[in-house]
Amino acid sequence: MERKCSKCKIDFVPTGTDTYCKPCRAEYGRKWTENNKERHNARNERNRQKYKTFGPVTTLTERTCGECDTRYPLTKDYWNVDRSRSTGFNSVCIECSKSNQNNWNDSNRELKRAYTKKSKDSARVAALKHYGGDSPCCKCCGETTLVFLCIDHIEGKGNSHRREVGEGGSFTAWLRRNGFPEGFQILCWNCNSAKSILGQCPHSLTSTQPQA
Predict the structure, then answer these.
(1) Residue 171 and residue 124: Cα distance in Å, rounded?
(2) Residue 188: predicted pLDDT
(3) Is the pLDDT of residue 134 over 60?
(4) How far apart, in whole angstroms, are the C-alpha atoms of residue 68 and residue 93?
(5) How far apart are CA 188 and CA 141, in angstroms?
(6) I need a labelling partner for 178 at 20 to 30 A (CA). Which of 135, 153, 161, 171 fits?
(7) CA distances from 142 to 22, 62, 139, 201 (A)
(8) Rg (alpha carbons) of the chain, rounded to whole number
(9) Alpha carbon 133 to chain centroid distance?
(10) Alpha carbon separation from 191 to 26, 73, 107, 137, 199 (Å, rounded)
(11) Burial status of residue 25 (CB atoms within 10 A of its CB: 0-12, 13-18, 19 or more)
């Protein structure tokens, strides 16, 4: 039975007593984390230390999937890791987890697209702000319109790197997962293309010429 999201007002299929759709729940979680970084980091550290000290509190070597009733060994080959559980693994096997996710995606295509777009936009804005500050702009010409800005590999070889990690949202997600490593800067599309074609943007060439 569908329900209307309390935030975006889009109809969605709840998984329980949810009042927010999946994209809005994810957005709420990200904002909470940003506004409560100390509490978030402290909680994660407590969980890491607890798991490091005690590990999974179980002597079981196998268990039955809660979905398909199939019994599998308790290894990463059959179960997704879930450190909040006593066994150290999820209660649903990997195959059932994939099936559940695919079924949800098929029945919530609009929500899936909205969630994907929100996730990509969030990662892109986070990358722009990390490398360009709160008001990111092109390092070469000073362009500030966000849609015109992109992430440039300072030392070049951007095409080969993107072939490895993916382009667009995959690339900015890679930057976020890896803690926004050094070696990148903000350029607009014009300056980035000129640098790729000429080796150096004409703006930087004219700025170094002596004044008459």
Answers:
(1) 9
(2) 94
(3) yes
(4) 8
(5) 8
(6) 135
(7) 37, 59, 6, 13
(8) 23
(9) 20
(10) 35, 55, 43, 12, 10
(11) middle
